[in-house]
Amino acid sequence: MDAEASPSGIASHLRRALGAARHALAATSRLVLDIALPTLCVSCREPVHGEGVCAACWAGLSFIAPPFCPRLGIPFVYDPGPELLSMEAIANPPAYQRARAAVRYDDVARTLVHALKYQDRTDLAPAMGRWMARAGKELLDEADVLGPVPLHWRRGWSRRYNQSGALARVISNQSGVRVAAESLRRVRATEQQIGLSRAQRASNVQGAFKVAADRIAEIQGRRAILVDDVLTTGATVDACARALLRAKAAQVDVLTFARVVDNHKAPI
Ligand SMILES: [Zn+2]
What we know:
Elements: H1 7-36, E1 39-40, E2 47-48, H2 55-59, H3 87-91, E3 99-104, H4 107-118, H5 125-135, H6 137-140, E4 145-148, H7 153-159, H8 163-175, E5 178-179, E6 184-186, H9 198-205, E7 209-211, H10 216-219, E8 223-231, H11 235-246, E9 251-259
Parallel strand pairs: 3-9, 4-5, 4-8, 8-9
Antiparallel strand pairs: 1-2, 6-7
Helix pairs in contact: 5-8, 9-11
Zinc ion binds at residues 41, 43-44, 46, 53-54, 56-57.
């Protein structure tokens, strides 16, 4: 009798066939998963491994490097020498001491910020936060606490994600400066700042922030850094800085991922 035709031969043949089928199925489902769930670069939509922006798009960001205004962090076209301030810093000195940002707010930066803020691309926060920690090293070396700019609870609920808080946590891990997450509160709903003039932005956020009474001890006498995704006119962080200073913060600096840079304004 043929060995393959015996009952045990048929059984082992079936086992082998089933094993092969299972193996093929597993390989196929892995393939399907690989096809269905690659991370796409948030900017160019090419598949990327690991973090959510490809090397080419990352390299396309305009990282801010010296020379820049020591107060506002606005990049200078040429180096005017140490301690020389920008026109803006002299004309409109903010409540905060210094501001730094990792990149200029251009198309790629805008795509990253919007994806983090509105599209739940939380996978972008680690890379963005690491660059912020690098850009803000000078400030972080002297800081006691990080204060993320709070969302209003209604807006926070609809978006369910505070991008400033996520960035602050990454910066905290990088620098060891702790996050004072619930200290600064939005006490008044504000309109979106988009589309408002500089003066409108300032009045829109005036008095909108407050340090919670039971959290004043976390701020009083401390050197704080406000953390936000983008600095446009600085009206929001200025209002936040005033609230921290009213709670007797020793000093307030600002660290953002991106900042708007007006290319037409030359340094003094
Ligand atoms: Zn890309």
